[in-house]
Amino acid sequence: MQNIDEIGKQLITQIAGSDSPRDVLKAPELKQLYGVIKTLPSGQRAVYGKRINELKIALESAVNARESELESATVESLDITAPWDVNSGPQNLLLTENGSQHPLTKEIENVSDIFTRMGFEVIESRQIDDDHHMFGTLNFPDNHPARDGYDTFRTEEGFIAPAHTSTMQNRILQDGKKKLESGGQIGVVAIGRCFRNEDLDATHEHTFHQCEGVFVSETATLGQMLGTLRSFFEAYYGQSLNIRTQPSYFPFVEPGLEFAIEKPASLGGSSKDKEWLEMLGCGMIHPNVLIAAGIDPKKYRGFAWGGGIERLVMLKYGIEDIRHFESGKLQFLREFA
Amino acid sequence: MIISLNWLKKFTDIDMPVDELVKLIGARLVEIENVVDLGEKYKDALIVKIVEAKKLEGSDHLNVTKIDDGGVSQNIERDENGHIQVVCGAPNVRAQQLVVWLPPNSVVPETYGADEPFLLGARKLLGVTSNGMIASARELDLYDEHEGIFEVEDDVRTGTTFASVYELDDFLLDIENKSLTHRPDCFGIVGFAREVAAIVGKPFHTPRWLADLSPNFGNSESGDVEINVAIDDPELSSRYMAVVMSEADGNRKSPIIIQTYLARVGVRPISAVVDVTNYLMMLTGQPLHAFDYDKLVAVGGGKADIHVRAGLENEELGLLDGKKIKISNEDIVISAGETAVALAGAMGGANTEIDENTKNIVIESATFNLYNLRATQMRHGIFSEAITRFTKGQPADLTAPVLFEASRLMNEWAGAKTVSKVADAYPGKVETPVIHVPQIQINETLGCSLDMLQITDTLINAEFEIDVEAPYRVLVKAPYWRADVHIPEDVIEEVGRLNGFDNITPTLPSRDFTAVEPNSFDVFRSLLRKILVRAGANEVLSYSFVHGNVLEKAGQEVNNSYKIVNSISPDLQYYRQTLTPSLLDLVHPNVKQGFDNFALFEINKAHSKKDGLNDEKVPIESELVSLVVANKNSQGGAPYYLAKKILDYLCESLGVKIRYEPIEKDSDDPITKTFEYRRSARLFDVQSGDIIGVVGEYKNSVIKGFKLPQSVAGFELSSAILFDVYKKLKPDYKPLSRYPSSERDVCFQVNENVTFSQIINSATNALQQEKYIAVVTPIDIYEPVDGTTKNITVRIKLTATDHTLTGEEVNNYVDSISNSVVIKTGATII
């Protein structure tokens, strides 16, 4: 064992001064150390083997350190203020025709624009949040089975990668409280990334985008919610649309609904053979959610909804695989050039 | 969850076509994901009688049988008696048996709907024709038994279809039960049927045993077997009932029709005793559990003394599935005396398991705290049909009628007798609240105009108790199985849902004409995007989470990233601190795909622990824009300038004036860690002096780690700071001069350490006279091989605002500019 330490020290010194440090790993001393293993009684082999392994790791990292030192020593600095390098000419930009905007950001811009014109403010959703915003203020008691529907990622500190943009609802309501109490209304849309602990396939992503909407006034009704959502989709698809709902359960709304539109003509829908596209979940904001934001549910009512952006884009372009969006493949991206 | 339509029909009259019903249930209760036509699956199966069974010569196990199908089959080979020949390999085949025959050209039900359904024919076995087959229970897709053929015990006429005898002309509805999390009642056929009745507006027939909440179990034949139950902590369980039964015959099967109902909703029939508990659970949503009474007495120290209590420190329990678990003090435990005998609601213990020697059983009917059980479910990974129902919160009132019916069925199907009094601990009895709901609140919330009669009829149909407080207020008492209804909004939901939300007219909220400002940061980021796209770059979106080795390869400290504890893969274990590593990770795959000259950019958020938390105590998010430009075939010149060119273009397009400064060697900022400090610069806003970001080449270790081509560089900026700078910009328009301009080129020879900006700055500083407009642009930068000097040539363009410049004026002015450069930088003019 003594031997290992001594040889280790020697080799590390050698590495530190070597111009080709990796060669030191082939030193005969090291081979000898390995050779010893076979000669040991079986009881001692494990301990010895572990020591050798530790030495190997230490040497490996010494080699890496020395290598990057050597490499780095040869790095020349350059004139960071110059427009181009010495002895070369002006730089060109890349070809504009190859440039492309991501189809998701394009659609998010489009959706934001429609909601803005309808009278909604647009904010961005957070990508890391806490239990209080993701569940607590949204009428999910601790250990409530409804939490099972949201397979959330959590950090060591207990922060949450939000599984829905509703994580912004409490903030929206708190921020809008003053406006509400001075006779106004709350009308805000939050768009952003969401995350769910879900295996990837052509139609499932662990990372996706949602658009959340919140409207509160003294006179909000479920009928207004249906009208507002229909109006959005009619603007989005540029035609009048029939809508359909289905009861659903989300703890932060009561009643809760799934909202579907008829397949618009631009997506190949026909009025004869009606197909329905499920677009989002929605409902009247639960009184407990209003109370959590300090808003009096006896005086004010509201509705909220949340739907995925990816689906809109996939339908619009006929994109076959949701995984393309976050793949960074130029082949995919340049289709949108 | 599977719901059988025929089972529903036992409780309410359904006469509409199934597709209409599915639509209606979808619009008023829950989404039905799929409908299976069971009649189609069993359409060819016939009940026949074996009239003769003889050994097949040359085979050790096959029999040749003649069957009587009552003459109903067409196009089939018959003998002189009109019987059909079928070869059968089952050991239990014998003459006079009633069996199920699958004729030629029918599909074996077990394979119905599979990728390759098994189509039967008439084929020869050892020279003897066999027409179709005689089916086993497994081939009929009833349960996993194929040792022998399925025997029909009931007295049925031959030639009757199997489906008609066992009510298999059925449709199975696959329910999306996530949306029923709040409806424990709908996890049983009875509850679901109640809903359907309310939706279609038909009466619901409550079975008599279910209507009686305090059933009289009668005098047990020998009511002297002792059993006591106690709930030690009423928080854990609001009711626990148990009764002892003896002489149950463990070998008896439940009636075939019951077996087929269990099988069609996905439960495997086992024995009458087990089937009773499963059948009642599927029917009512109330799970039951059975213990071996004698074992329970033995572990309980000589008496049946059942306790419901919290798990103890260091308590362990061996479960029915053979696993041994460590109990937590959040688990609910059923104990006999001191000893744990079951993990309540989840699974029984091995120490009280029913086996072939069991003589007496204890049947438990109870309800437990759903929050505790959900934690138990997660902790021990138990996802049974029972716990799925318990975690929705089954009502305490349901335990009595279900236990009553269980004891009756145990007697009827398995011959068991009740031998104890019913033990009942019910500390959680609560009075159902009366909810006051004004008519106006219903109509104003939904946006409709229902009259009082419509409202009360709807609620009465759903078995709510109604009182009307004159003139416009409804007093509502929910039935005991609707524990989800406690506030007026819940009642409004019921009214809206059962009347059909789709019957509400969509309207729009009224709003004033105040203009809404678009989100200015969004507008700015959209502008950034368009500029970078114009510069030929491709926008990407990449995951917010990265592999630890991506951070390491990028030179960043892994422990500065928020770590995901339940990530699906190591690839997604850490929040990224900056965007550059994600982009670098995408370069090599794209190069491999044949792209050799491209720029990728992303505008997104990143999270670094060093940034700390905000006022809400959640991590501060940094808003970033990052770009990487790669060129596999280097055009000569350092790649740094590729990135700088795009950055200059971006800033010029925005109108932001920037300055490049060197980066110190060991910066702590996660952005700079990826960049080689000697070949990168920090970007400053000239006006405010704020740092906007970093541009440059990457460390050699980064290039190696990400397998980057040699010519690669990029930048990462704070889009938030850039936005602040941009917001403060004022229009910078200079009136045009009416006079022509003149140009002179000057070449400065300087020491190689003198920077280009030193020359430009000293030149620009000399251009102070207001009546001239002077612009200095670079023409050439030349450094001789092994030289210690370099030559920088610039073009000075001069325009006067009030006259045409003479040659002399131009020369003088250019000279003075040049001289000032010479003084500041020690240049020689050549």
Structure description:
The complex is a heterodimer of chains A (337) and B (830). With 337 residues, chain A is α+β, with helices and mostly antiparallel strands. Chain A has helices at 2-17, 28-39, 42-73, 103-118, 131-134, 169-181, 222-237, 287-292, 309-317, 330-333; strands spanning 121-124, 153-154, 160-161, 186-195, 207-217, 243-248, 253-262, 276-285, 301-308. In chain A, the strands form two sheets. Chain A has a seven-stranded mixed β-sheet. A two-stranded antiparallel ribbon of chain A has the order 2-3. In chain A, β2 (153-154) and β3 (160-161) form a beta hairpin. In chain A, α4 (103-118) crosses α9 (309-317). The model of chain A has no long low-confidence stretch (mean pLDDT 91). Chain B is an alpha+beta fold. Chain B has six domains: 2-37 and 173-206, Phenylalanyl-tRNA Synthetase, Chain B, domain 1; 43-165, OB fold (Dihydrolipoamide Acetyltransferase, E2P) (Beta Barrel), CATH 2.40.50; 228-425, 3-Layer(bba) Sandwich (Phenylalanyl-tRNA Synthetase, Chain B, domain 3), CATH 3.50.40.10; 436-503, Phenylalanyl-tRNA Synthetase, Chain B, domain 1; 520-727, Bira Bifunctional Protein, Domain 2 (BirA Bifunctional Protein, domain 2, 2-Layer Sandwich), CATH 3.30.930; 742-829, Alpha-Beta Plaits (2-Layer Sandwich). A seven-stranded mixed β-sheet of chain B has the order 26-29-30-34-33-32-31, with helices on both faces. Chain B has a five-stranded antiparallel β-sheet with strand order 5-4-3-6-9, with no helix packed on it. Chain B is elongated. Chains A and B meet through α3, α4, β1, β2 and β4 of A and α2, α10, α13, α15 and α16 of B.
